TrEMBL record, chains A, B:
InterPro entries: Ig_E-set (IPR014756), MoCF_OxRdtse_dimer (IPR005066), Mopterin_OxRdtase_euk (IPR008335), OxRdtase_Mopterin-bd_dom (IPR000572), OxRdtase_Mopterin-bd_sf (IPR036374), Sulfite_DH_SoxC (IPR030835), TAT_signal (IPR006311), TAT_signal_bac_arc (IPR019546)
Name assigned to this protein: Sulfur dehydrogenase subunit SoxC
Superkingdom as given in the UniProt entry: Bacteria
The protein's required cofactors: Mo-molybdopterin
Organism phylogeny: Bacteria, Pseudomonadati, Pseudomonadota, Alphaproteobacteria, Rhodobacterales
Chain ranges of the Oxidoreductase molybdopterin-binding domain: 119-274
Entry keywords, A to Z: Metal-binding, Molybdenum, Oxidoreductase
GO annotation (BP), single: sulfur compound metabolic process
GO molecular-function term, one example from the UniProt record: molybdenum ion binding
Domain Moybdenum cofactor oxidoreductase dimerisation: 293-411
Length: 427, 427
């Protein structure tokens, strides 16, 4: 038992213990937050239920299972006015309903530039060409013969939270912050494949592209390609899903999701960046004076409270309340998260569910009490470089309001006396 | 870049580099293992493919996604002669096709005693009674108000590998070792809920039961209940699946899966074990002399090679070969895995994909060469207590052949010259 574990054994505030002990005592038949039932026995306890007196579904029911019907709202969602073209656009991870750190592939957001393609392993080819000693073509089976790594990383779209540059727009964490997922990848380090081809001295960049019609070409400095990029074939233990690049995608830890090329088909070693459409007219930040910043790859430290939030209101009345959310940084591990309930007047240190991991999601909790007063909830992440997540106003001071990408500003949820939450901005 | 990372950049044996560089060179148009095509250009490289010239599936296609059709063999499977009664029986995780450490809920094995029940959160109740100061009933919403933890643990059925006591029986890692999964759980420490009720001095055990018809009651020493057990509501970030105990199950880290009671409805604090059906006539080990060992809860250190294996033969010919598998211990972290290719005459240290974690799966790899000779593949795990996974013969010397449960013996796959694998035993 660790010291932290002991903490939760004894660390309950007296008021929390009082509350739940009183409200849920068996003798009274009462249940927290439902005082109206206090005088009646609970038939869910006193009567034999159908599910305890008949047999349920057998093991042959679902060779590959799906969530239970009661969780049918925990799905990827689109924003109709944002995604007029369903082929080339985006949907969002239901982060308001998730806990922990792993994102199941089934509800991890999608972003396509020309739709998700169906590519068999047998038809997969990966070419390495350009400034190499020996241009190579790998089949899927070839990839399986190289030493593999396992690493857990977040992937965040550069446009995540992008609509919020103009002020509070979308009323839900899924829509403001749901272009992110976090998975355990298995694959071959890109440096291994590049070493196989033999990078020539003049090679300073790689240009990577996918097998889909968009090709989504991006330039990556050789230094990053050799540091920690992977050609991943599996996520969360199983094959990549079609919509995430089956059978192989590039993993570019900590850098914007657009660079994680799906259905990866070619890596060209070059002596300079290609300056493709996806890295010039798109995925750059236009500043207040109309000029655009070049090469804004790293996703800076960011966090968001996922519950309570507009899609996850407080429904249980006053007393004990768990506030939770997630934090991440493209520059390394999260070292701390602070939470405020009063719009930044006072901050409390959140509890991290586990020590921050390099370029991966960290789950945080604040175990607190709610007396029914309105709250202005915010979270603020810190990473191992010492960087602290800025306010939206601080971002606008530097970048103006012409940007779409790389909005890592502090998010505010206003929670009213009924426990309902709204996306707001405060200054 | 860590030292280990650097290793995979430069650590390829000359033969591996030679092989792949030669075989996959673009100029020759050849691909590893398919020398017959050497003289012809590869149309998958030289011709524009359909998937690169049309748009694919859009983001609205799958609000909750499933694996691509080409992975339709990566599913839970039953063994017909073993699972005559589909309601009360088992299926198996397709571990031969997985990598990494996380098991997706969709293909994580099921074991039911009276079928999987459909229980709404609104109808969920958890009672704590017996030797407590205040008997309590918690709703699902109550559980959500207590401080939560996140932990990744393996769950192994006590009967995993049970058929193999009688010698090699089932021809596939899925069937010999697939009653295991490994997930990230979020939930409330059991000690927190017990503290809320107030355990009396005479309370030494808890008796836990589920809401299904079987109730599957099990006794657990209070010490374990307070140490690391959890009432989990989520796995791998999302709600538990129906077949894994939605909306709440018990997590009993490192201990046999039968104790991880699903649809958890009651926890009674007692002064001794109940000695229920599930812990007397079932889930005990009958020894050679006909007597049964009492209380065999911990799943000892174990490992298995998942590829190559009977369902995952070598299909790519001679040369570089990745051997992979997984290891786990109910007594703590895995500290090492050895692999032999010659039935135990010589052993090599496998590469762990990450340092072993407490009571969680560890992925191991041996990056080697195969010259086409037959192999007798085995893996042997070591845990932080110094315990070393035994041979099946060593287990039988102590326990005879009457057992069904707790077979953690070393598994052998015989690989023939064609790369096909079979389940065999060698002495």
């Amino acid at each position: 038992m660790t010291t932290k574990d002991k903490g939760s054994e004894t660390g309950l505030a007296p008021s929390r213990r009082q509350f739940l002990r009183g409200a849920a005592a068996v003798g009274a038949g009462a249940v927290a937050g439902t005082a109206a039932r206090a005088a009646e026995p609970d038939p869910l306890i006193t009567e034999v239920q159908d599910w305890a007196s008949t047999t349920g579904a057998g093991v042959d029911a679902t060779p590959y299972g799906l969530p239970i019907e009661y969780e049918s709202d925990v799905v990827r969602r689109t924003v109709p006015w944002l995604t007029a073209d369903p082929i080339s656009s985006i949907n969002f991870t239901p982060i308001h309903a998730l806990d922990g750190t792993i994102t199941p592939q089934g509800c991890a957001f999608e972003r396509h530039h020309s739709g998700a393609i169906s590519l068999r392993k047998e038809d997969y080819r990966l070419m390495i060409n350009g400034l190499v000693d020996t241009p190579l073509v790998f089949t899927y089976e070839d990839l399986e013969r190289f030493p593999r790594e396992n690493r857990t990383y977040f992937l965040e779209c550069a446009a995540n939270t992008g609509m919020e540059w103009a002020g509070a727009q979308l009323n839900g964490a899924q829509f403001t912050h749901g272009m992110i997922h976090n998975m355990e990848y298995s694959g071959v380090p890109l440096r291994t494949l590049l070493a196989e081809a033999g990078v020539q001295t003049e090679g300073k960049w790689v240009y990577v592209e996918g097998a889909d019609a968009s090709s989504n070409g991006r330039s990556i400095p050789l230094e990053k390609a050799l540091e920690d990029c992977m050609v991943a074939t599996r996520a969360n233990g199983e094959a990549l899903r079609m919509e995430h690049g089956y059978p192989a995608r590039l993993v570019v830890p900590g850098w914007e999701g657009n660079m994680w090329v799906k259905w990866l088909r070619r890596i060209e070693v070059t002596n300079g960046p290609v300056e493709s459409r996806e890295e010039t007219s798109k995925y750059t930040d236009t500043l207040a004076d109309g000029t655009s910043r070049k090469w804004t790859w790293v996703m800076d430290a960011k966090s968001v409270i996922t519950s309570p939030s507009p899609q996850a209101p407080i429904t249980h009345g006053h007393g004990p309340l768990v506030i939770t959310g997630m934090a991440w940084s493209g520059r390394g591990a999260i070292t701390g998260v602070d939470v405020t309930m009063d719009g930044g007047k006072t901050w409390q240190k959140a509890r991290l569910a586990a020590p921050g991991q390099d370029k991966a999601l960290t789950r945080f909790y604040l175990d607190t009490e709610w007396n029914g007063e309105e709250m202005f909830l915010q979270s603020r992440a810190r990473d191992e470089t010492g960087y602290i997540q800025p306010t939206k106003d601080q971002l606008r001071e530097v970048r103006g309001e012409n940007s779409v990408y790389h909005n890592n500003g502090i998010q505010t949820w206003w929670v009213n006396g009924n426990g309902e939450a709204e996306n707001v901005e405060i200054s």
